[in-house]
Amino acid sequence: MSGQTVTMTHAPDAKRHSPPPAWRKPVLMGAPLVLLLVGFLVFPVGQLLALSVYNGQGFTLAPYAQLFASSLYVTVLWITLKISLATTLVAVVAAYPIAYLISIAKGPAKSRLIFWVLLSFWTSFLVRAFAWVVILGRNGVVNSTLMSLGIIDRPLDLLYGFGAVLAGMVHAMLPLAVMTMLAVMENIDRTLPRAAGTLGARPGTAFWTVYFPLSLPGVAASAIMVFVSAIGFFIVPALLGGRKETMITQLIIDQVQQTLNWGLAGAISVLLLTVVLVVFVLYDRVFGFASLTGESAVVRNRDTAMRRLGGRVLGMLGSASDTAIGLLPRRHPIRGRAEHPLALTGFVWLLLALISLPAFLMIPLSFGKGGLAWPPSGFTLQWYQQLLDSPIWMQALWRSIVVAFGTGLLAMAIGVPAAFLMVRSQMRGKGAMLAFILSPIVVPRMIIAVGMFYVFAQMGLVGTILGLVIGHTVVAVPYVVMTMMAVLRNYDTRLDMAAQSLGARPLAALRHVTFPILGAGMLSSFLFAFATSFDELTISLFSSGGLSATLPKQFWDEVTLQVSPVVAAVSTGLLLFVATLIYVADRLRRRSLAG
Amino acid sequence: MSSSSLSVQGLAKRYGDFVALAPTDLVVADGEFLTLLGPSGSGKTTLLSLLAGLVPPDEGSVRIGSQDVTYAPPYERDIGVVFQNYALFPHMTIEENIAFPLKMRKVPAAEAKRRAGEALEMVHLPHIAGRYPRELSGGQQQRVALARCMVYKPSIILMDEPLGALDKKLREHMQLEIKRLHRELGTTVVYVTHDQEEAMTMSNRICLMNAGRIEQLGTPADLYFRPRSLFVADFLGESNILPAALRSRSGDEVEIGLGTLGVSGRALANGNELPPGTEVRVMVRPQNLTVARKGGNTPDELQGRVSEVMVTGSLTKVYMEPLDGKLPPLVAAFPTRNDDDAVRIDDVLTLSWSGRDAVVIADKIADAARAAGTA
User: Fold this and answer.
1) CATH number at residue A495
2) The pLDDT of residue B373
3) What does R_g of chain B's alpha carbons equal in angstroms?
4) Which domain holds residue B323?
5) Total domains, chain B
6) From the list B87, B100, B148, which residue is nearest A492 (CB)?
7) Nearest to B80 among A10, A497, A501 (CB)
8) What residues make up the domain containing A495?
9) Which residues form the ABC transporter domain (chain B) (predicted)?
10) Same domain (yes/no): B214, B348
11) Where is the domain boundary, B166, B196, B230?
12) How many angstroms separate the CA atoms of A120 and A535, rounded?
């Protein structure tokens, strides 16, 4: 027969398959992602870092000399760290009650809470940051309200200061903090605090000594995600900060766009990357990376003095809150032990209103005649008319949709097989592979964007749709892998085996069983990639070139150069778009559970 | 070889250093109901997965009929698998689930629908065709899984602990149901379970597995009354294992001595050719021990002091400490009767058994000695 049966000794057999080579499948599934990241993450970032020590003729440390020559860069680094830390602290503390309430809520109440968090999460960073300009500006919401109430008689300088930057940063990061924390909280066994109750712990003690310690990995994961995102952020400080709130990413932009000093840009990137890596190494030492993907971290700390002290503090917090609860008047004797206290629910909805409202302010402004000054006056559709008549905006919108679609498809094509590989195979080095897959999230976006710009320029990809799709896929693919991994972990692989035993070939099993069941999960990770690309500004800022802007790039140019009320109309459109997207995704998800 | 529908030669599977299945030979006859029985981790599910083609073996071969299917994918094997959790497709109705294998075999839709209906009739569930799996009870899901497997008449059906998730009463009912379907269809069945009672009830033969190897293969009666090892004796129901010394042999029966008081008894040699004086174990099932009150301290009779009496329903079990301290505790069982002369704790009873009901177990003596030596 054929060549493969030569080595077989059971010659009379009509058909004998040889064992398939064990390495082939994992390589086929993992290679595209590895190639993508090596080619368009490792290589560009490496190039940029190399530029800081190589000036075309040979080795040089000149950029570093320049970096430390003046106190400017160290001061900016210090400001960056200060803003990022403050943002992390406030965002995590505010996110905790929200995530907690979502994790204990059920049914429609839970869906409602998640909807509002997601709406903020997906509403463009730009829209949300710009909303704060409208709120805090001289003719903004706060000033005009206070003046009309007669509390002040001339506008306060609220914008361009630390407070404004912190408000904008927290607002930008809070949804991320909630979502990361929630992943861990959802996995905490609900019966444990109840068990503590039956063992004699009052509610406050049960929370602080049982639930809270179990939720700490989530708090840590959320803190690091927020910190690392904040440190590489430039939209909020650029729009809301003054000279004293300049962050390090803004310096990189200046070096690349204005002075074209690639060496110095590379040196600043090295500085930024070092800080981020140090933070991550510390994090891994203490909590382990596994907690980032929502898996419970292995408890490593034993009986140390810190731990005993922590236990004592939590115990005291517990009895303190029990005393406080005891002081409150009891509600209905039976309903008194309701699991969501009214006070908590109220507080959480207040927070959600605070993070949702700014973007909603854009709706009345977009129909107002008075431009971006508050309060809006009159009713007009002229800004929408201008928007529709503007070829620049329309081309940007079209380009964004095309790029986001391409990114979604490419990220799925590359990320889904990788997710299957990560969940299903027993290959070695999975931890390292996961860290590599997540690296586009870890490395500050600005560094990726600048490195990519440098490499794209050499390849002629600047200003092309293809370049943007590749760039956005690099940053979207980790989200696809992560959401698909979560989906696949809940998928019973015996269904595939059952399908095969019933006569389905692998492709038929995928088509009739695996994909239909995973459908909703796959759609949501596609939407994740789509939305990531649709809102991506950093990569587009450089790689879209001067003339072929995407929607966020056009928005950015508009708000940094000449602010027009058209921006309010665009914001309203984006808000509507995101709300529809979330609603549809949620309906699909529920239908898939029902069917 | 034409009578064997399934045969396995030197089949082995390792995961790293862990030997999930040591090289194993097994022949399953056409139409047979064979049970793979064993504790968890004994290799029974590994063997089943290898038969189904769900995992590739490291060595050895699997043949179905005259075909070598060692590395053939599941969909080329003409087998049916009933999974532990049923693995019904949640996004398909019951009818679509059952018609799925027919669809994969390109059976026309109308024909598939008709045959799915027939399969549902066969498991007495014709009224649920339009429902989804999650709307069914565990027992109903189980029957649907059976119907989905039988609808395409595979030559072999593999079942992986199919009744594990059901409660006791339903399980017993489904055991009868599966037996009935097996009889009606005449399919070869390989059935995995860790429940020895289930294995005894249902099987033509039982393949008892332990630590990745076949411990003993035979009819339920073989394993129950003529175990080849302590493991087999212990795994299939309660047993009394007594250390004994061979005294003499006559035909297939042997005379044995127990303990230090010179108690003697008889047992089946069970094919063991051993010289007099050899240290062996003798196994007697609890229901084959006869207890009596007739007193007297006759040294050649086995006596025990009652330590616990348990009425389990149809059987009363009496646990005893032998007066000879060298012997392990014993348990006897007899039908529960409604009488006043009930056995009480601290009663002293005399125990005896028929030579046909006791059996010599020889093979593990060497192992036990080795284990004791290395410990």
Assistant:
1) 1.10.3720.10
2) 40
3) 25
4) 238-374
5) 2
6) B87
7) A501
8) 362-595
9) 6-236
10) no
11) B230
12) 13
**Dihedral, CA of residue B42, residue B44, residue B50 and residue B56, to nearest 10:** -20
Task: Count Cβ–Cβ pairs < 8 Å, chain A vs chain B.
Answer: 89
Q: Is the predicted pLDDT of residue A582 greater than 60, yes or no?
A: yes
Q: Which residues of A touch B158 (CB under 8 A)?
A: 501
Mutate to test the interface with A, among B11, B18, B54, B157 (most CBs of A within 10 A): B54
Q: Do B68 and A516 touch (CB under 8 A)?
A: no
Q: Is B66 near chain A, with CB under 8 Å? A: yes
Q: Are residues B45 and B177 in the same domain?
A: yes
**pLDDT digits 0-9 by tens, A515-539:** 888 887 888 888 888 988 988 888 8
Q: Do B21 and B142 fall within a single domain?
A: yes
Does an H or E element contain A556, and which?
helix A551-561
Residue A424 has pLDDT above 70, yes or no: yes
- Evaluate whether residue A317 is within a structural domain: no
Does the distance separating the beta carbons of B91 and A592 come in below 8 Å?
yes
Q: Within a domain: residue A330?
A: no
* Number of domains into which chain A is organized: 1
A19/B contact by beta carbon, under 8 A: yes
Question: For A172-217, how does the pLDDT look when each residue is reduced to its tens digit (9 = 90+)?
Answer: 899 989 988 888 888 888 778 777 777 777 777 878 888 888 888 8
B140 and B220 both lie in a single domain: yes
% of chain A at pLDDT higher than 70: 89
Chain B residues inside the 8 Å CB shell of A494 = 83-85, 87
**Residue A84: its pLDDT value, please?**
93
Q: Do B39 and B176 lie in a common domain?
A: yes
Residues of B in contact with A14 (CB under 8 A): 66-68
* pLDDT mean over A350-356: 88
Do B91 and A14 make contact, defined as CB atoms within 8 angstroms? no
The pTM of this model reads 0.74
Chain B nearest-CA distance from A583, in A, is 22
- Total residues found in chain A within this entry: 595
Question: Touching check for A311 and chain B: CB below 8 Å?
Answer: no
| Highest-pLDDT range among A380-389, A569-578, B30-39, B364-373 | B30-39
If you measure CA to CA, which chain B residue comes closest to A498? Answer: B87
Is B101 within 8 Å of chain A by CB? yes
What is the side-by-side order of every strand in the sheet holding B79-82?
B79-82, B156-160, B188-193, B33-37, B205-210, B213-218
Is B85's CB within 8 Å of A516's CB?
no
CA distance A239 to A135: 13
Shared domain check, B283 and B214: no
Q: Are B361 and B228 in contact (CB under 8 A)?
A: yes
Question: Best residue in A426, A502, A591, A592 to probe B by mutation, most B CBs within 10 Å?
Answer: A502
B130 CB neighbours in chain A (<8 A) are none
Residue A500 lies in a domain: yes
Parallel, antiparallel, or unpaired: how do β-strands B67-68 and B59-64 relate?
antiparallel
**Interface mutation target, options B100, B131, B134, B142, chain A, most CBs of A under 10 Å:** B100
Q: Please report, for the domain that includes residue B207, its CATH number.
A: 3.40.50.300
Q: Which of B175, B208, B230 is the last residue of a domain?
A: B230
**Is A74 domain-assigned?**
no
Q: Check whether residue B249 and residue B209 sit in a common domain.
A: no
Single-letter code of the amino acid located at A591 = R
Q: Are residues B141 and B261 in the same domain?
A: no
CATH of the domain at B313: 2.40.50.100
Q: Among A17, A498, A516, whose Cβ lies nearest the Cβ of B91?
A: A516
What's the pLDDT score for residue A98? 93
Position B36 scores a pLDDT of: 95
Q: Which of A446, A460, A450 lies closest to A51, judged by CA?
A: A450
End-to-end CA distance of chain A: 47
Chain A nearest-CA distance from B206, in A, is 24
C-beta separation of A361 from A134 below 8 A: yes
Which sign, positive or negative, has the C-alpha torsion A389, A393, A397, A399?
A: positive
Which among A17, A497, A513 has CB closest to B72?
A17
| φ, ψ (nearest 5 deg) of residue B311 | -100, 110
